Amino acid sequence: MSTVAESIFSPATAERFDKLVTIYPVKRSALVPMLLYAQDDLGYVTDAAVSEIAQRLDLLELDVRNVLSYYSMLRTKPAGKFNVQVCTNISCMIVGGYDVLDHCKKRLGIGHKEVTADGQFSLEEVECIGACCWAPAMQVNYDFHENLTPEKVDAILDDYAAGRGKDVK
Ligand code: FES
Q: What SUPFAM superfamilies is this protein classified in (predicted)?
């Protein structure tokens, strides 16, 4: 049973949150996982999500917003259906990370943290995504794409646009 009378989240997420608040010695430790699950559930972290999470964790909404604004992987606005995150941290930077990012900007016609007019793609420049051995790398939603070149990026984006991307259901 949910710990809030009327959850704004899907039943599965509400159930997950009910469990999350019980597994940490301090309730507040569930905050970052909850924000990530909320984002997956709703597409971004809405004001209503902030309010419910604060209630669930006995925090002030301000406490939740302070954490929300700290982590760049958390969004307060909708992303595109396919969120393209290009790493420009050191390993990627020295083998063409910025070329990949610039190519994505040109190809999609959007900049950092922007969404294409049709809502299909959004773009972000991000720090290390843990794929340094296969740099330059990017992530589209939860899928990694590595050893990138502008040509490879084109093929990957074509695949997503055509519904053939790795995580297209
Ligand atoms: S520096 Fe780009 S994945 Fe680590």
A: Thioredoxin-like
